[in-house]
Specification:
Length: 136
């Protein structure tokens, strides 16, 4: 590379690096990246604390039982692969009848996904419709 061009590029690079607005933007960008993970963990902890305050209520227990029936292994990363206890989901649908909104809210608070989405993933279309008919 031509030494004159190289020196010119070096001067421009120094100007960019020493520009206070560029430095501020870089610091803000790095801070956002670092804080994003902490904010997600904080939100998860707040949700769990809200759920744990009412853990003895029936709707919270039903929400946890639905999750257990959807995820028999107990490992969250296995939820889509480890099968479903469909008989238990049917029994829980009868227990949920009349309190579906409360159970769905408790499930969303604890597991950060909607109850209907989880049930839809676990059951085929006919069983899902039967489940919805039971709870409503």
């Amino acid at each position: 590379m031509n030494p004159i061009v190289a020196a010119n590029l070096e001067q421009k690079a120094k100007k960019i690096v020493t520009n206070k607005y560029v430095v501020i933007a870089v610091v803000i960008g790095i801070s956002i990246i670092i804080l994003r993970g902490r904010i997600k963990r904080l939100i998860k902890k707040i949700r769990e604390n809200q759920f744990d305050k009412n853990e003895t209520k029936d709707v919270n227990q039903i929400a946890q039982q639905i999750r257990a029936a959807s995820n028999p292994s107990g490992f969250n990363w296995m939820i889509d692969w480890d099968g479903t206890d469909e008989d238990t989901l049917t029994i829980l649908a009868h227990q949920t009848k009349g309190a579906f909104k409360e159970v769905a809210d408790a499930y969303r608070l604890k597991f950060a996904e909607t109850l209907t989405d989880r049930i839809r993933k676990e059951l085929d279309a006919k069983d899902y419709q039967n489940w919805i008919n039971i709870v409503q």
